[in-house]
Amino acid sequence: MLCSLLALLLGTLLAQTIQQWPAVRVQPVGSPLSLKCTVKGTSSPTLFWYRQAAGGPLQLLFYSVGINDTVSEEPLNLSASRPEDGQFILRSEKLLLSHSAFYLCAWSITLSRAGPPSVQKPHCLLSPSHPPLELSLRGWVDDICDWVSDC
After folding, report:
1. Mean predicted confidence (pLDDT) in 75-80
2. Phi, psi of 49 (to 5 degrees)
3. Where is 47: in which H helix or E strand?
4. Pairing of strands 46-52, 59-66
5. Which of 67, 112, 145, 148 is least enclosed, having the fewest CB within 10 Å?
6. pLDDT at 91 over 70
7. Which pTM was predicted?
């Protein structure tokens, strides 16, 4: 039974996807903008919007732990909404030149169970042996791959 449960959990985890639309968008200053993030294959994910200006660090803009529950970290004249469980939308009514950046949607899953409080294992990215890294726009994919192989 344990093997069946493990196989079921692994199958569920492998079927999850995230999509950011549009993947690439270039718009003139002063125009409105809407970026949509959709997560499928899981329920109640925590969703995040990040921003990285050229040469700058990755910056958390918004996160959401549930429908209509959005927390603003550094809004920069942007807004975010979560109208559905697996959907997170980033908007600007009027783009500014300072909005020029790479925008990234991300998600994480929080598992819950009945019983005594759980203990969360520190994520390898935040452990003392793996201090947080500042990502560069050019090398962010390489950095993520390195993080995964270190875990």
Report:
1. 88
2. -120, 125
3. strand 46-52
4. antiparallel
5. 112
6. yes
7. 0.63
Average pLDDT, integer, range 8-27: 73
Cα diameter, the chain: 59
Domain 17-110 -> CATH class: mainly beta
Give the H or E element holding residue 7.
helix 2-14
Q: Is the peptide bond before 28 cis (omega within 30 degrees of 0)?
A: no
The 10s digit of each residue's pLDDT in 125-151 is 433 444 443 434 445 555 555 555 554
CA distance 118 to 112: 8
Identity at 37, one-letter amino acid code: C
| Bridge partners, 109 (sequence order) | none
Residue 42: C-alpha distances to residues 2, 56, 79, 142 (Å): 21, 32, 24, 26
Buried-state track 95-108, b at ≥16 Cβ within 10 A, e below 16:
beeebebebbbbbe
